[in-house]
Amino acid sequence: MISRLLDLFLAYEVDPNVNLIILKGNGRAFCAGGDVAAVVHDIRKANWKSGAQFFSKEFILNYVMATYTKPQVSILNGIVMGGGNGVTMHGRFRVATETSVFAMPETALGLFPDVGASYFLSRLPGFFGEYVGLTGARLDGAEMLACGLATHFVPATKLSLLEEALHKVDSSDSAIISAIIDCYSQQPYLKDQSAYRRLDVIDRCFSRKTVEDILSALEKEYMDKADDWIKNTIQSLKKASPTSLKISLRSIREGRIQGVGQCLTREFRMVCHVMEGKLSKDFFEGCRAILLDKDRNPKVNEMAQHSPLSPYPP
């Protein structure tokens, strides 16, 4: 899919008959992410370089999308997770619906938010990007719009009308395309239990310098408020790979002062280190628990053997 998309995007950019790109999923999801299990399978056969080639092409596609001269309209109906965000978040228009589910769940897999996530997460309001990237929290369409991950919200029942209108566009003018999407857009209700309504707590806790400080701040908040959302956030962090949490936090912080090309280059170097080094143990265990055996119970204490976070139990 990545190879095909890359070929098409490169061809369409120089094709005078193409004014914009409409990207959507073929099924009930937009894109649930890359085939990480296949990468793990290759690494176990001492062939981590095939995984590196996969990530290299994927990140090149992400960069092409981020620097594309023609508008890209991504219709995010259904799940958009992990690598799926790499083929949409760099585009100009990102249309969420009531079925949209966003997540970057990499820390649970022993990896880190990649595909340029250190760029687009670091540019969310406050420290919401750190929260989303470290916990792997799932956001609905209303939350995606509120924090800026989506540019528009269109009810799923209106998507066919939107696509029909976009197919008639004879210009690459972003203002014209935005105006067309606006005709079908609405302002969704942000639920009271939404994480985005807790941005003040998120900013207080996830602005801390280290992962240990973040956890300590969250635990103090929970003692003061006994909020189930805070409890669940703490549990999400403690189930993730401790080393991945540290890598992810630093990556997002560095992303704040880097361009998208710098972020993707750095992330590629990071993922190669994960695949070929000691961190591959975390990667194996996370993928076993989430993707292969699906018991969703990674052995955090084993994963934490190289991390100062090991005192925190699963």
Automatic annotation (TrEMBL):
<dbReference type="GO" id="GO:0003860">
    <property type="term" value="F:3-hydroxyisobutyryl-CoA hydrolase activity"/>
</dbReference>
<comment type="similarity">
    <text>Belongs to the enoyl-CoA hydratase/isomerase family.</text>
</comment>
<feature type="domain" description="Enoyl-CoA hydratase/isomerase">
    <location>
        <begin position="1"/>
        <end position="301"/>
    </location>
</feature>
<dbReference type="InterPro" id="IPR029045">
    <property type="entry name" value="ClpP/crotonase-like_dom_sf"/>
</dbReference>
<keyword id="KW-0378">Hydrolase</keyword>
<comment type="function">
    <text>Hydrolyzes 3-hydroxyisobutyryl-CoA (HIBYL-CoA), a saline catabolite. Has high activity toward isobutyryl-CoA. Could be an isobutyryl-CoA dehydrogenase that functions in valine catabolism.</text>
</comment>
<dbReference type="InterPro" id="IPR032259">
    <property type="entry name" value="HIBYL-CoA-H"/>
</dbReference>
<dbReference type="Pfam" id="PF16113">
    <property type="entry name" value="ECH_2"/>
</dbReference>
<dbReference type="GO" id="GO:0006574">
    <property type="term" value="P:L-valine catabolic process"/>
</dbReference>
<comment type="pathway">
    <text>Amino-acid degradation; L-valine degradation.</text>
</comment>
<protein>
    <recommendedName>
        <fullName>3-hydroxyisobutyryl-CoA hydrolase</fullName>
        <ecNumber>3.1.2.4</ecNumber>
    </recommendedName>
</protein>
<dbReference type="InterPro" id="IPR045004">
    <property type="entry name" value="ECH_dom"/>
</dbReference>
